[in-house]
Amino acid sequence: MTPTFVLTRPQMGENIGAAARAMLNFGVDRMRIVAPRDGWPNPAAVALASGAGRVLDGASVHDDLAGALVDCTYVYATTARQRDLTKEVLSPEAAMRDAAARMAAGGHVAVLFGPERAGLENDDIAQANALISVPVNPEFPSLNLAQCVLLVGYEWMRASAQVTDRMVEMAGTQWATGDEVEHLARHFEERLDAAGFFFPEHKAASMRTNLRNMWSRMPLTRADVQTLHGMLRQMVRWARRG
Question: Is residue 85 a contact partner of residue 125, using CB atoms and an 8 Å limit?
């Protein structure tokens, strides 16, 4: 289950389609549309949905906001400006964490998004339990409908799914083992010793230690180790030919 995203009086079919695409990017597929200016269905919405047509196919259309919220147990309203209403105001991150907890307890959560030109009106806001305010540049707070949907959808994904914050694509290889790195270090030391690198003699030990420390700091893969071995062998062959 995901929250229901309610588009209130959207003005352009293109923005509805872009919002559907943004929703599906983050696994949200429950859309309700309140009094769309250009009617429904809207071919322009389908064109901009770009593969997210099933969100539009499943969308319900309502004459007023009350009808769209009739079965919802908690409602957030997105807004970019101060209101003369007493409401709890949450960031998108905090709101979607709260939404995930409410839905896990069996609730039906909705998020309201306003029309493109001016956003939600106070009469709309009055029907919500809490507000979502995106931290934006105060000198230019306006967000496109689909952009706002994207931000909230992203935070929903983070709150409701296991998101990997950091990873490395191994590209067909594995991390080098300690033995493989040790073998590489010995290979370099042997060749550098033969080339007279460890000079003067009284600094040789610390130079070797610094080299070993350098290898240990490098996150080497097996492919890296093989490449470095090959580079060193080729350099030795070239020096011998010379």
Answer: yes
Domains, in order of start, for the chain:
4-160 (3.40.1280.10), 178-241 (no CATH)
Phi, psi of 211 (to 5 degrees): -65, -45
**Residues 6+ away with beta carbon under 8 Å from 63:** 34, 35
d(CA 212, CA 44): 62
- Rounded Cα–Cα distance for residues 132 and 23 (Å): 17
Pick from 103, 109, 153: which is nearest to 128 by CA?
A: 109
Q: Distances from the Cα of 87 to the Cαs of 54, 76, 138, 171, in angstroms? A: 34, 10, 20, 50
242 to 159, 194, 197, 215, 231: CA distances (angstroms): 63, 16, 18, 29, 17
pTM: 0.78
CA dist 183 and 229 (Å) reads 9
pLDDT in tens, the chain (242 residues): 899 999 999 999 999 999 999 999 999 999 999 999 999 999 999 999 989 999 999 999 999 999 999 999 999 999 877 667 899 999 999 999 999 999 999 999 999 999 988 889 999 999 999 999 988 888 888 889 999 999 999 999 999 987 788 888 888 899 999 999 999 999 999 999 999 999 999 999 999 999 999 999 999 999 999 999 999 999 999 988 87
Judged by DSSP in three states, 215 sits in: helix
